[in-house]
Amino acid sequence: MSKKRFNSSSAAENLTEYRTVTETEVEQAISYMLKQPAIQKMINAAKELYSESDKIMQGLMEVRDISPTLGFGAREKSKIWSPYR
């Protein structure tokens, strides 16, 4: 049983014989897809995630301004309970 190899260049040539897609059709298809509820839900979730990430990054910037060695909202250890005061 021999297998035929797929020739992508001949497939592309064959597809152009059927129809040429215009820029307007592509834009309309993308606009249609972006209006779908499932896509809107994903976009809104991504916006929320980026917003939360921005808040975290801003917090890290504030900590870096206080102490360049600390990060992720860490605070310096209290010396009240430290045996090595």
Label this structure with key terms:
mainly alpha, elongated, single chain, 85 residues, 3 helices
- Given as residue ranges, the uncertain stretches (5+ residues, pLDDT < 50) are none
Q: What's the story with the biggest beta sheet?
A: none
Overall pLDDT metric: 75
This entry's quaternary arrangement is: single chain
β-strand percent reads under 5%
Quickly count the helices.
3
For the secondary structure, the number of strands is: 0
Secondary-structure element sequence? HHH
Q: Which percent bin holds the helix content? A: 55-70%
Compute the gyration radius: what is it?
28 Å
Spatial shape: elongated
Class of secondary structure makeup: mainly alpha
Distance between the termini: 81 Å
Give a summary of the structure in a few sentences.
With 85 residues, this protein is mostly helical. It has three helices and no strands. The model has no long low-confidence stretch (mean pLDDT 75).
